[in-house]
Amino acid sequence: MTLRLFIALAGAGLIQAHVVSMSSSDLLVEGNRARFEMRMPLYEVAHVRAPQQTLFESIRFSSNRVEARLRDPTCVEDKQDGSYRCRAVLEWPFEVEELDVSCKLHTVTVPNHVHLLRAVRGGKNDQAVFDFSNTSAHLKFRPPTVFEVWVTAMGAGFARAFASGAAVLFLVCLVLAARSGKELLSITGMFLAGQIVAAVVVPATPWNPAPRFVEAAMALTVAYLAVEILTLPAAGQRWLVAGVLGAFHGLSLAVYLTVTELSPIPVLAGATLADVLAVALLALALSRVTRLFPSLAPTALRVASSLLLVTGLAWFFLRLRS
After folding, report:
1. How far is it, in rounded angstroms, from Cα 310 to Cα 267?
2. N or C, which end of the chain is more exposed by having fewer CB within 10 Å?
């Protein structure tokens, strides 16, 4: 498999993919009441039983530890724009000043689902981003401090580094592909550089890659690198390959930054830190195993690479079919 073939197959993934794993909602707080409206793609609720009840149970609002009373909840399908819209009125026995929100929509849709909540109270805006790594938020209806912005965004970036199984498997591949400590540093550095460039450049272009295309491409990067380990054990310029493949992984962060509108610098810093720590731990574990079982190391490398190849290809074709 050549790099040209990889790019061609990734292009096929772009043709097939057409979905976005995200939803959004707006909340208007007025005194002791709030009007809530949520929008979600129809395909996200296609497999959900009793979607109206399930969705409202998955996102809850409270103030001063008193949960909102839900009134007039309704959900309708809008087939013109392919969305599922839910509305309700939230009510408390007192005037609301701050809100606590719990959101677990990722447990009833897909694990990498992202929900963006925008809230308004007295002309003051606040917002929160929810996913598997962040299921609760406290809305104060005031601008966050610089420290709060950085901590939140870095934490989100750190978690997004492990949001996809394909991303984790690629880091394993990256460590297996390195034939020395020096090469591990070079290919890791190029991978991170490619990832950062794609994450910064793509949101500035008209292209908005669909998340399932991104995951399909990421799965294919695992397969490609596994093939190179198996068939080209002495190949040079592996750092260049790592940089190109890193760009495909950067698309995942580009999609996340576009959806959440978070500051890119702390998000990328958190993701980079997570990748560096993961590579360091994986490399340490591999070196320990190699020292303990030196005679089995070549066979173990081939077996591990073969498993990664099969897994990456299976993941890729599943995403094409979904």
Report:
1. 31
2. C
